[in-house]
Amino acid sequence: MLFFISILVLQNIPGLLSFRCLPGNLAVYTLKLQTFWDEESFPKQYPQWRPPAQWSKTVGFVHGEDPELFRVGNAVSGGVRTFIETGDSTLLDQEIGNRTSNLLDTILVPPITKGVGEAEATVFVDGNHTKVSVMTKIVPSPDWFIGLDSISMCRDGHFIDALSIKVDPLDGGTDNGFTFTSPNWPTEPQGVVFRISQKYPPHPAGSFNYPHLQQLPTIAQFFLTKRKDYELADQRKDNIQGFISNQKDPNMDKDKYEYSVESQPSSKDTSSSSSSSSSSLEIIDFVPFEETNKINSKKAELRSNEILGSSSSPGSSSGSISYKSSLGKHLKGFRGSGGYHASSAPQDFF
């Protein structure tokens, strides 16, 4: 009788039997963004100039339960609004800097200066900060972007070996424009983030409006591939972040990923880095797991239109997700402080 009652209790405590990644574990990932935005797949109003189709730099962070970078159904912050409308991350960088107590690592991936291309960066997660959130502006566009919202890299007490996520274009809810080169047309009051599909928004002039299709072609895909596991001898957060800082490219400079627009003055990103002292590598002691060299050759499992495994992550609904887990030339883009402009006014489409 006591055994039967114990089973009932366990069944009614969600997550009790799930395993978390240990605070003393840290993993290094390569985050790669691959884009497929070409004229053949997206022929409608495909941007050829002023500027041509491309992608902004990718910004984001590694965190625990909080904070969120963006979320479908929620309004975005002022910094996110500026970034998704103009590509300028100065205010967003400041907002991220104010959240460093809740973050493990900040993420910066170079821009992709064509509609089709790829870029990558190194990302660190640990047992207390297992979630990855990033966003990339679609250039040109009113306030459209792609991104990952709080994607957890921990499954059953271990860091996932490889993860691939196909993402859909998102509307930031801050501008009413529905074509790539729509003029500035603020949404008042500000709306919420929503997913763009082949039928929504339903206006026939919309750049992503393809009502004859079952779904939009894949426009972009994120890949997270684990490179190495570490077991921490010193779990103090400042020492962990110091180790991370020393592992990253010392020449990584956000300014080289700034944007400029012809006939408009360029601006510099004045955000400060949250890197710790370079001497921390001598303080913290990491011991690589013996089996981690075997996972370097593993490739991300690519599957479309399905989600494998259970996930409580809100971001898992933003695209098609696959994951595997086992006990084993920097170029310029374009942006303008005043947004992107076209010769057609909003009322011309009605």
Architecture overview:
This protein has 350 residues and is of the alpha+beta class. The protein contains four helices and 14 strands. The strands form three sheets. Strands 1, 4, 9, 12, 13 and 14 form a six-stranded antiparallel β-sheet that branches. It has a six-stranded antiparallel β-sheet with strand order 3-2-5-6-10-11. Strand 7 and strand 8 form a beta hairpin. Helix 2 (78-86) runs antiparallel to helix 3.
Write the layout of secondary structure elements.
Blueprint: H1 2-11, E1 25-36, E2 54-63, H2 78-86, H3 90-97, E3 103-109, E4 116-126, E5 131-139, E6 144-152, E7 154-155, E8 158-159, E9 162-167, E10 170-171, E11 194-195, E12 220-232, H4 237-247, E13 286-288, E14 319-324
Antiparallel strand pairs: 1-4, 1-12, 2-3, 2-5, 5-6, 6-10, 7-8, 9-12, 9-14, 10-11, 12-13
Helix pairs in contact: 2-3
Task: Tell me the strand percentage band.
Answer: 25-35%
Largest sheet: 6 strands, antiparallel
Order of helices and strands: HEEHHEEEEEEEEEEHEE
Residues in helices, as a percent range: 10-25%
Distance between the termini: 70 Å
Low-confidence runs: 1-17, 258-318, 322-350
Averaging pLDDT over every residue, what do you get?
75
How many whole angstroms does the radius of gyration measure? Answer: 21 Å
State the helix count.
Answer: 4
Structural class: alpha+beta
Brief characterization of the structure:
This protein is of the alpha+beta class and 350 residues long. It has helices at 2-11, 78-86, 90-97, 237-247, and strands spanning 25-36, 54-63, 103-109, 116-126, 131-139, 144-152, 154-155, 158-159, 162-167, 170-171, 194-195, 220-232, 286-288, 319-324. The radius of gyration is 21 Å and the shape is elongated.
